[in-house]
Amino acid sequence: MATLTIRIPEGKADRLKTLAEQRGISVNKLMEELATMAIAEFDVESRFRLRAARGSASRGLAFLDELSAHYRQEKDSSSAPSSAPSSSPGFHDSAPSTFTPKEK
């Protein structure tokens, strides 16, 4: 395992100590977790950018159009008049979709 010394302002160091205490872990473990999150975020963005560079804008837009049409149909078929008070369900309140993209 490597040792890394960093310099940060006192106020930020104090807040990190408080955060670690709140989570019941050491500052070292907190920094390890934060580093893992930062690396994972970087990896995801790098993969996305690589895929975007290899991809086709027209295929991507066609896929988004197909996806929009699917969800528009799903919404239209599920909206039946009712005497119950109108309340919009949240995104995760509805049943999972059965969307499958068309193979090209």
Give a short synopsis of this structure:
The chain has helices spanning 10-23, 27-54, 57-78.
Topology (elements, then pairings):
Elements: H1 10-23, H2 27-54, H3 57-78
Q: Any overview of this molecule?
A:
The structure is a single chain. The chain contains 3 helices and no strands. By secondary structure, it is mainly alpha-helical. The chain has a domain of 65 residues.
How would you state the average pLDDT, rounded?
Answer: 84
The SS-based structural class is mainly alpha
Uncertain segments are none
Task: Tell me the quaternary state.
Answer: single chain
Q: Helical element count?
A: 3
Strand element count: 0
Q: Helix and strand string, N-terminal first? A: HHH
From the spread of the alpha carbons, the general shape counts as elongated
* Termini separation: 47 Å
* Gyration radius from CA atoms, angstroms: 23 Å
Note the beta-strand portion: under 5%
Kindly state the percentage of residues in helix: 55-70%
Largest sheet: none
Question: Which features does this protein show?
Answer:
0% strand, 104 residues
